[in-house]
Amino acid sequence: MSGPDPETKMQFLFALRSKGVTDQRVLEAMENIDRGPFIKGLFNERAYEDMPLPIACGQTISQPSVVGIMTQALKINPRDKVLEVGTGSGYQAAILSKLARRVYTIDRHPRLVREASEIFKALDLANVTTMIGDGSHGLPDQAPFDRIIVTAAAEDPPGPLLAQLKIGGIMVVPVGQSDAVQTLIRVHRTETGFEYDELRPVRFVPLLEGLGKDGNVR
Ligand code: SAM
Does ligand 1 lie within 6 Å of residue 86's CB atom? Predict the structure, then answer.
């Protein structure tokens, strides 16, 4: 995997900074993880543009600047255990793996999980665990989590995910109708409850129930 040429890489990082990704650790992680291998076929040549692109199963790899903004909003510490709901291409999980101790990532499409696992293996990202399933229920066996990131839009932050967030933990989730502009929100779990703040408008594919069509349950 050769990665982008130095000028393309510089433009990629410039686009991130100019859209508000300023956290140095996040920028370094995004510099280290090449987006190219996560995009197959014709769209691969657009891997370093700041735009969402189609991936298998009718899904998308998110816009790099949105990945950066969501990642920095999580304020990840190196000891953190992170849950990502919506593995998709695996790009976001790979970046999380550079910042956290352990990353669990779950998607309802077995094919996406399989393909992302292969990339994690090829990149030697040994602290990422992939799971197939409906991530709106979280991962009770691995809970609680220091950080949770949801990369599909929910009408409300899913209750099981709120319950699986540690006290002092942070969750970032796009909230709103799937056919409209949604709002990226950040949830802090405190000793007494949850505090919410609105970060920015976003557009994500919807958080759906059950397994995807390439799984055996719907
Ligand atoms: N984070 C991904 C990346 O880095 O490429 C992009 C995620 S894509 C915008 C949204 C993903 O959420 C899709 O892969 C979709 O299959 C997944 N998804 C939707 N509903 C889900 C659910 N209930 N549980 C798990 N994954 C879900």
Answer: yes
* 208, part of any domain: no
**Ligand 1 within 6 A of CB of 130:** no
Number of structural domains found in the chain = 1
Of 35, 51, 55, 59, which is best to mutate to test ligand 1, by the most ligand atoms within 8 angstroms of its C-beta?
Answer: 59
- Between the CA of residue 47 and those of 34, 70, 125, what are the distances in Å? 9, 19, 20
- pTM confidence score: 0.96
**Is residue 218 in a domain?**
no
Rounded distance between C-alpha atoms, residue 91 and residue 98, angstroms: 11
Taken in order 108, 146, 37, 23, the sign of the CA dihedral is positive
Which atom number of ligand 1 is nearest to the Cα of residue 88?
14
Q: Is residue 217 part of a domain?
A: no
Predicted confidence pLDDT, tens digits, the chain (218 residues) = 468 999 999 999 999 999 999 999 999 999 999 999 999 998 999 999 999 999 999 999 999 999 999 999 999 999 999 999 999 999 999 999 999 999 999 999 999 999 999 999 999 999 999 999 999 999 999 999 999 999 999 999 999 999 999 999 999 999 998 778 999 999 999 999 999 999 999 999 999 988 887 754 33
How far apart are the CA of 77 and the centre of ligand 1, in A?
24
CATH number of the domain enclosing 34: 3.40.50.150
Segments forming the whole domain that contains residue 87: 6-202
Assigned domain for 105 exists: yes
